[in-house]
Amino acid sequence: MSLPLQLVSPPRVRTARRYLMCPPWYFAVSYSINPWMDPTQPVDATRAMSQWTALVDTYCALGHTVELINPEPGLPDMVFAANGATVIGATVLGARFRDAERAAEAQHYQRWFAARGAPDIVMPSAVNEGAGDLIWTGSLLLAGTGFRTEPAAHREAQEVLGIPVISLQLVDPCYYHLDTCLLILDDSPASPLIAYYPPAFSPGSQRVLARLFPDAVIAGAADAACLGLNGVSDGGSVVLPVEAQNLGRALAARGFEPVFVDISELRRAGGGPKCCTLAL
Ligand code: ARG
Q1: Is 172:224 a contact under the CB 8 Å cutoff?
Q2: pLDDT tens-digit map of 116-136
Q3: Catalytically active residues, by annotation
Q4: What are the tens digits of pLDDT across the range 192-207?
Q5: How far is the CA of 18 from the centre of ligand 1 (A)?
Q6: Which residues contact 83 (CB under 8 A, 6 or more apart)?
Q7: What is the 3-state secondary structure (H, E, C) of the chain?
Q8: Ligand 1 centroid to 51 CA: how many Å?
Q9: Which ligand 1 atom is at minimum distance from the Cα of 131?
Q10: In the chain, which residues have pLDDT < 50?
Q11: Rounded to two decimals, what is the model's pTM?
């Protein structure tokens, strides 16, 4: 006799979230700074806009609040709001992009927080691509490096935010930001839970993750390859790219509700739901 699922996984508790997002008015793939981006293939900006709008509607239907920042012409990747900053409590750690093409985004995000009266905004001196590489588990900051955010930015984040930082080495250029291969499912300090794709990490970082999160959901290659780990969890519902069906089933077996969205057009720049979403 098999046990009913609710006896196996704890009840999941959803909490209302606030997200910052940026409409893809100027979305394009006009340069290539990751292996997903092919400037010779035109993107459908109208389709990107409707997929992004559906993502906003999905968050609102789940009871979350979405705040907006105006996009700037000439910054086609500004839609990926996760890279604009890292927000922990009242502190905003700004961004510093590796690539010249995205550099100007940092000040627009900084200005957005300043205009809303954020009491404590610190701009980094090392390359720091915000919550794309710096991910809060509820008690630790997991910090990716290898492609974008520099190890010096991890040390800066620990100093500025006063929270323990765990550095993780990314090794596959397709998974160039930490949020492309690792997803926080439950950020309650008592029962943190993540999903991740081990081959995106160095052997040592895989061992660190296995030690910290022994019951993590391990994603397979197909779920990683559609950027399935670039999902957004509120502790109960997890918004995922529609292609990530295996991951969706694995999450359902752990008591989460997968909520699928079509984000195919934004994926042509290497982004998914989480990249478009900065948790406030
Ligand atoms: N084209 C963008 C870049 O390469 C995509 C950013 C995706 N953002 C993320 N949080 N993973 O920078």
Answers
A1: no
A2: 999 999 999 999 999 999 999
A3: 177, 275
A4: 999 999 999 999 999 9
A5: 20
A6: 77, 95, 97, 102, 105, 129, 130, 131, 132, 177, 275
A7: CCCCHHHHCCCCCCCCCEEEECCCCCCCCCCCCCCCCCCCCCCCHHHHHHHHHHHHHHHHHCCCEEEECCCCCCCHHHHCHHHHEEEECCEEEECECCCHHHHCHHHHHHHHHHHCCCCEEECCCCCECHHHCEEECCCCEEEEECCCCCHHHHHHHHHHHCCCEEEEEECCHHHCCHHHCEEEEECCCCCCEEEECHHHECHHHHHHHHHHCCCCEECCHHHHHCCCCCCEECCCEEEEECCCHHHHHHHHHCCCEEEEECCHHHHCCCCCCHHHCEEC
A8: 17
A9: 10
A10: 6
A11: 0.95
Domains of the chain, start order: 18-279 (3.75.10.10)
Q: Give the amino acid at 158.
A: Q
Closest ligand 1 atom to Cα of 102: 12
Task: Give the amino acid at 277.
Answer: T
CB of 272 within 6 A of ligand 1: the answer is: no
CA angle 104, 109, 110 (to 5 degrees): 95
User: How far is it, in rounded angstroms, from Cα 137 to Cα 100?
Assistant: 30
CA of residue 177 to ligand 1 center, whole Å: 7
Q: What are the tokens at 193?
A: 């839970």
The rounded mean pLDDT for the chain is 96
